[in-house]
Amino acid sequence: MRYQAPISDLQFLLFDVLGADTLHQLERYRDATPDIMTAVIEEAGKLAADVLQPLNKVGDQQGCHYDPKTHEVTTPQGFRDAYQQFSAGGWASLDAPTEFGGQGLPHTLKFIVDEMVCSSNMSLGMYAGLTHGAISALYAHGCEQLKATYLEKLVSGEWTGTMCLTEPQCGTDLGLIRTRATPRADGSYSVEGTKIWITGGEHDLADNIVHLVLAKLPGAPDTTKGISLFIVPKVLPDSGERNPVFCGGLEHKMGIKGSATCVLNFEQAQGWLVGAENDGMRAMFTMMNEARLMVGMQGLGIAEMAYQESLGFARERLQGRAVSGPGNPDGPADPIIVHPDVRRMLMRQKVLNEGMRALALFTGRQLDLSVAHPDAGEREAADDLVQLLTPVVKAFLTDEGFNNANQGLQVLGGAGFTTDWPLEQLVRDARIARIYEGTNGIQALDLVGRKLGLHGGRLIGRLFTLLATHLQAHADAPFHQPLAAAVKSLEDATAWVAGRGMEDPEQAAAAAAPYLRLMALTVIAYLWSRMAIVAQQQLDAGAGNTALLEGKLVSAQFYFDKLLPESSWLLADITSGKHSVMALSDAQWDA
Ligand SMILES: Cc1cc2nc3c(=O)[nH]c(=O)nc-3n(C[C@H](O)[C@H](O)[C@H](O)COP(=O)(O)OP(=O)(O)OC[C@H]3O[C@@H](n4cnc5c(N)ncnc54)[C@H](O)[C@@H]3O)c2cc1C
Question: Which residues contact 370 (CB under 8 A, 6 or more apart)?
Answer without folding.
Answer: 379, 380, 382, 383, 386
